[in-house]
């Protein structure tokens, strides 16, 4: 007997493990009947989780901090994809500092908004120093940038690769602000679902872990499972984008990176200014158990994982060449 759940997700390639797990029948093999709808709006996944229509899915890694004070908040139980978020600008703009007085588009409540906030702050600027346009639908956002109605835009992959190929300039990929690597999308379960149905969460984690192994073994082939979510996208753009946003289910060593975004969330008004940093947004016990069961040892820290300096995670990225 299967258990039916709806898996939410965003619009980026950091969801590749979820797409592979669904497309390759890995969820089904674990006794889960899942639905993975296609979304073009970044707010859709948060809305569905908040409504209770789905209690398991992938969301932006800052969403559980924002929603920590809800009656049934989402809890991070594992990872999905790393990094791959950027600030892109029109070709004549070459630094974040040049955005002063210009128009930049971003997505509310998303790490993309936090990236813009933190990059501006690093240059002594704030949202009051430019016109910030809040976007939601990814197709409309791309159209606004390509028609030059906005001067800069925050994007995840493969969308950033698409406009980079058309001449857009990358101003930041977040690594100079948050380290290399950092999480982008994470797997979450609602607190009640995690408490009452941990076996289903474990089953989903097993499927995601297996999906990451399949991506590592056959990166280009596994993109076939994602292609339907990106109609009209060039295959080469998907391959480049997937390399910039590699899969990673075991993000235990990146827990502090999640909590380190708290002050920026306060500054942006995304959490109550008088609230204390929540301590209940992460639960990796089931992940640790499934990794041990699979005979996998996760990195204890980014420093212990890599020793190559600036592009620490590069050697771990699947080779889509």
Note down, in words, how this protein is organized.
This protein has 321 residues and is α/β, with parallel strands linked by helices. It has 16 helices and ten strands. The protein is globular, with a radius of gyration of 19 Å. It has two domains: 3-83 and 182-316, Periplasmic binding protein-like II (D-Maltodextrin-Binding Protein, domain 2), CATH 3.40.190; 85-178, D-Maltodextrin-Binding Protein, domain 2. Helix 5 (111-122) links the parallel strand 6 and strand 7 (131-135).
**Main sheet?**
5 strands, mixed
Which class of secondary structure composition applies to the elements?
Answer: alpha/beta
Helix content: 25-40%
Strand fraction equals 15-25%
Order of helices and strands: EHHEHEHEEEHEHEHEHEHHHHHHHH
Count of DSSP-assigned helices? 16
Corresponding CATH superfamily of the largest domain: Periplasmic binding protein-like II
Count the E strands: 10
Number of domains: 2
Shape from CA axes? globular
Q: Calculate Rg over CA atoms.
A: 19 Å
Termini distance? 41 Å
CATH class of the largest domain: Alpha Beta
Q: Mean pLDDT across all residues, rounded?
A: 87
């Amino acid at each position: 007997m299967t258990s039916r759940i709806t898996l939410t997700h965003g619009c980026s390639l950091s969801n590749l493990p979820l797409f592979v797990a669904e497309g390759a029948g890995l969820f089904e093999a674990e006794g889960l009947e899942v639905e993975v709808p296609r979304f073009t709006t970044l707010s859709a996944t948060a809305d569905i989780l908040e409504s209770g229509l789905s209690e398991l899915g992938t969301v932006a890694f800052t969403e559980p901090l924002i929603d920590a004070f809800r009656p049934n908040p989402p809890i991070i139980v594992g990872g999905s994809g790393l990094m791959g978020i950027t600030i892109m600008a029109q070709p004549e703009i070459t630094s974040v500092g040049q955005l002063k007085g210009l128009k930049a588009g971003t997505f509310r409540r998303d790490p993309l908004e936090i990236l813009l906030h933190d990059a501006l702050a690093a240059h002594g600027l704030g949202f009051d120093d430019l016109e910030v346009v809040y976007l939601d639908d990814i197709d409309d956002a791309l159209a606004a940038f390509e028609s030059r109605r906005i001067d800069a835009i925050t994007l995840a992959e493969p969308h950033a690769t698409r406009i980079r190929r058309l001449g857009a300039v990358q101003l930041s990929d977040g690594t100079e602000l948050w380290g290399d690597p950092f999480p982008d999308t994470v797997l979450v379960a609602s607190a009640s679902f995690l408490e009452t149905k941990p076996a289903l969460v474990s089953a989903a984690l097993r499927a995601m872990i297996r999906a990451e192994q399949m991506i590592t073994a056959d990166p280009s082939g596994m993109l076939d499972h994602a292609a339907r979510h990106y109609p009209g996208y060039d295959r080469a753009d998907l391959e480049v984008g997937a390399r910039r946003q590699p899969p990673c289910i075991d993000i235990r060593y990146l827990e502090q990176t999640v909590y380190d975004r708290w002050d920026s969330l306060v500054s942006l008004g995304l959490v109550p200014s008088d609230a204390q940093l929540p301590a209940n947004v992460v639960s990796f016990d089931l992940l640790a158990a499934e990794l041990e069961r699979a005979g996998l040892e996760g990195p204890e820290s980014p420093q212990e994982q890599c020793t190559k300096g600036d592009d620490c995670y590069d050697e771990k990225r699947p080779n889509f060449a």
